Amino acid sequence: MKRLKLYESRDKMIDLISDNYGMLQGLGAFGIRLGFGDKTVEEVCQEQNVDCYTFLSVVNFIINGYAPKENDDRISVETLLGYLRASHRFFLDFQLPSIREKLRGTLNQEDSIARLIMHLYDEYAQDIQRHMKYEEKTLFPYVESLMRGEQPPKYNVEIFSKHHSDTTGKLQELKSIIIKYLPHDGLSNNRLTDTLFNLYNNEEWLGNHCNVEEQLFVPAIRILEKNIAADGVMNRISDIIKGVESCDKVSDREKDIIICIVQGMSNKEIASHLYISVNTVITHRRNIARKLNIHSVAGLTIYAFANGLIDKSCITSE
Length: 318
Prior knowledge:
By secondary structure, the protein is an all-alpha fold. The chain has helices at 13-19, 24-30, 41-47, 52-64, 77-106, 112-147, 157-162, 169-181, 189-248, 252-262, 267-274, 278-292, 297-306. It has 13 helices and no strands.
């Protein structure tokens, strides 16, 4: 039974689960262990190192279809990633094999229609496996790179979102065929009903899982991508500023060269005065011009005066 309400951090965890027993698997995917007594959702999450806001966002979305705004940056990508990974393991390692075993035990394997039904289920299971393994090999590592502050080239969450297809089609077909066309052969109707019940639960679970990816995970990844892009722009601006500052900073030797130039010395005279070679003087002058973007003696004179390298007495007017 589902109780339609928005759950809050002060609600008791036992009440949330009692009202919505389907969230039991969700607890396991979040890594929340049972035995939490009458503690609130917030207390349980704090004790078990689960982001409470993200947990409640998933709970309220699955139960009530209530999704946070797409620009809500409080969703923890790390928590959602762990939840989705654990959900994959539950579904691939337990849910699919368990339902297959129930279905096989329900059907008469000597009947051709029964064999076709099993074949259809196996096709469905393979589709789900391919879908989830793609996410584990491509999307999840990409998200981990973003969490490290890295933006891998040639991939983004929009590529994933465009190819994130619905995987429940074959399951719907399978349920319909069983209900409409499975011949009665005296097998326990209770077993068949139980198997169909599991198939319906399976479809609902998978639909919720895909919707969490689309409505919560993808927007959270978009925010992460934008933050990294913004950080990249700021880092590039910072690098440019540092580069400009570096360019503007002349060395002590270059200051000596500037003073000599302002005083009207030739390259040869500067070399003799500073005990360096003429080629070194030329190199210094080239670096000064590049750093200051000043190429005239008049300009260097103004620079030298403005920066305290010379006083007004050194400035002569013609």
